[in-house]
Every structure is written in C-alpha cells, then in structure tokens.
Design goal:
Blueprint (H helix, E strand, L loop, with lengths): L10 H31 L4 H39 L10 H4 L10 H13 L14 H24 L2 H5 L1 H47 L6
Helix pairs in contact: 1-2, 1-7, 2-4, 2-7, 5-7
Length: about 220
C-alpha cells in the first residue's frame, strides 16, 4: 500500500524545471542553427563538426538536468493530486516516474498521468468536483516531445546510412530531419515550462484555499 498522500509545495521544483527547460530550449536553437549551417553547406566541416559536438554535449547535459528535476516535480504533483481530488487518478503514483521507462507504454503513461493530474488540479466547482480546464498545453508538450524523439531517431538512422555518406541529397534529408527534431524539442520545452507553471499555480491555489479554511478566526 502506498503511503498516505500529503500535500507538499511543488514550487521549488517547478522553478528549477522551468529554468532548465528554458536553457534546454536555447540549446536546441543552437543545435538547429548548426544543423542548418551544415544543411546549407551540403555537409559538415571542421568548424561545424566542432560546434555540433559542443552544442550537442551541452544539450545532452541540460536534458539530464531537466529530467533530474522534472521527474521529482511530476511525482510531487501526482501525489498532491490525490490530496486535492482523490478520485481522479487512474494510475499508480510510481508510474509518474517509472512510466517513462516502460517499453512501448512509455509513450502513453507520462501523458496520461500528466493529463489526470491536470484535471484533478483544476479549480474546484460544485461539490468539490474540478471544473473542466482545457489541457491544450499538456497535449502540445507531449505531442511535440514524442515527435521530436521520432525525428531524432529517423534523422540519426538516415545520417549513418550508406546513402548519406555518398549522396549530398540523402545527407541533407537527414540533417533536415534532425533540424526539425530540434525545433520540436524547443516547442516541447516551451509548452512544458508553461504546463509546469500553470499546474503548479493551480495546486498552490488549492493549498492556499485549504490553509485559509483551516485558519483560526481572528479575535476582534
């Protein structure tokens, strides 16, 4: 049995996640610029190869840093959602972290859990039931993230193929796929930081109302 759900503020983790998402998005722009330079030149050069290595390494480190703060944030808001509205969670809280690493289901669990948490954290309406709040930012985050993974896979496979080594058009096609993947990474980071900020604000608003309701009356 999981431990009882206890509300803990996600604001600190949200601030760190937002900052790292912003830096990750900036690194994706840098990577896209290098890839476009290679695309325009029809291939790589010593300078663009060096830049690609540097920017790619920075982006990878920012990816690891983003994951290191985003996953704890995701787990925290998932537990908080049980406190705010216990009836709205369809999956175990541990899947907020482990779900990312489940083969095949990893393209479903994180989005589903984020969507359930969003619904539970929406402003309370009649009888405490959350009011419907469009989760467009959650959907945009997940779609752009999954598409970026797909394009990175296709681009990397294409770039390493025999055709790419011998034909400029094939290499440009691979570079185009990788560039599109970086731009979708930027979209995922922007929509992700908006999602983190909005969801954190909704949960903190619930916590503030709960504290106000339990506050002792002020003596006249």
């Amino acid at each position: 049995m999981p431990s009882p759900a206890v509300y803990r503020s996600p604001r600190g983790l949200a601030s760190a996640t937002t900052a790292l998402f912003a830096l990750h998005g900036a690194a994706a722009v840098g990577s896209a610029a290098v890839l476009l330079a290679q695309y325009a030149a029809g291939g790589s050069s010593a300078t663009t190869d060096w830049l690609a290595t540097v920017v790619g390494s920075v982006e990878y480190l920012l990816f690891l840093g983003s994951a290191a703060v985003f996953l704890p944030w995701m787990y925290r808001v998932r537990v908080n959602a049980e406190v705010i509205y216990p009836h709205g969670q369809q999956h175990a809280r541990v899947l907020a972290v482990v779900g990312w690493f489940v083969p095949f289901a990893g393209i479903w669990f994180p989005w589903r859990i984020a969507n359930d948490v969003w619904k539970a954290s929406a402003p309370a309406g009649e009888h405490g039931v959350p009011q419907p709040v469009p989760a467009r930012v959650v959907h945009a985050w997940w779609v752009s993230l999954v598409l970026s993974w797909l394009l990175f896979f296709l681009g990397t496979e294409s770039l390493g193929s025999e055709a790419s080594l011998h034909y400029a058009d094939s290499r440009r096609e691979a570079l185009g796929l990788l560039t599109a993947g970086e731009l979708l990474t930027l979209a995922a980071m922007v929509s992700g930081l908006l999602m983190v900020g909005r969801l954190t604000a909704m949960q903190e608003a619930h916590a503030a109302r709960a504290r106000a309701a339990w506050a002792p009356p002020v003596a006249a």
